[in-house]
Amino acid sequence: MEIIYNLPDFREFRSLLDSQSKSIGFVPTMGALHNGHLSLIQKAMESCEIVIVSIFVNPTQFNDPNDLKNYPREIEKDIKKLSPLNPNVIFIPGVEDIYPKPDTRIFDFGNLDKVMEGATRPGHFNGVAQVVSRLFDIVRPHKAFFGQKDFQQLAIIKAMVLQLDYKIEIVSCPIIREENGLAMSSRNSLLTEAERKNASFIYKILKEAKASYPALTIEEISNTAVKKFENQPGINLIYFEIVDSKSLAPVKTPDNSSEIVACVAVKINAVRLIDNLIFD
Ligand code: PAF
User: Fold this and answer.
1) CA 224 to CA 227: how far, in whole Å?
2) Mutation test of ligand 1: which of 131, 136, 139, 273 has the most ligand atoms closer than 8 Å to its C-beta?
3) 236-261: per-residue pLDDT in tens?
4) For the chain: N or C, fewer Cβ within 10 A?
5) Regions of the chain where pLDDT drops below 70
6) Quick check: is 142 catalytic?
7) Rounded to the nearest 5 degrees, what angle is found at the Cα of 189, between the Cα atoms of 187 and 195?
8) Which atom of ligand 1 is nearest to the CA of 147?
9) Taking the complete model, does pTM exceed 0.70, yes or no?
10) How far is the CA of 229 from the centre of ligand 1 (A)?
């Protein structure tokens, strides 16, 4: 496992791979690694000969400077967590490597980045697209692995790959949950023990919503879920939406061909958490 801290060294490593016809898997992360990330890396290692993990807290995807400041940074711990998996390279670039000059690109994702996270975090997905495309240009992988917890991010990255014509397979990996059902997230480390316990309420409500489909209408399911969140102390609901899994447009009366997914964002004190569950 090699650790590379800057772009010139990474480029040297990457150019050595050009003469070898090996499959390259890439797992981009912002660090503060948990079992969800490790499952992505595991999956990459099962299907690719070379696996590259990046750790970079991307400033352009934070619309709230406090969120960026408080985002957990644990490089030493991350390296320790990665060593048993032994990916080929951990790439830890600096801001000057990723953005030698400000990235002024504005992406157009239509509806995909206007709803849910996009509506409440202006510019967030543009920043994600900037960093992921920059990393794709640098790493030039064959496959890239992303978690389904960030359902909207996954849809946007797939759209970006089509728009920019990358020949990269996007592999979506299932949500990994804590024992109490809370979706694993780097932000969970910012929760107190009591908050973490309370946060298990999110998955509980998602499961109840799914169980009541199709007996209840989508509107009834949404209203019930919203009420339950509103009555739960310590959790502030940002949105609960039931959307089409491809267009991310709100669904009122699903037809048989559409896959629907319930998506939720909450704040527990200052910690923003998201989760989702696909209805069969
Ligand atoms: O999902 C994340 O951790 C980030 O949004 C990503 C994809 C690494 C881009 O910074």
Assistant:
1) 5
2) 131
3) 999 999 999 999 999 988 887 789 99
4) C
5) none
6) no
7) 90
8) 1
9) yes
10) 27
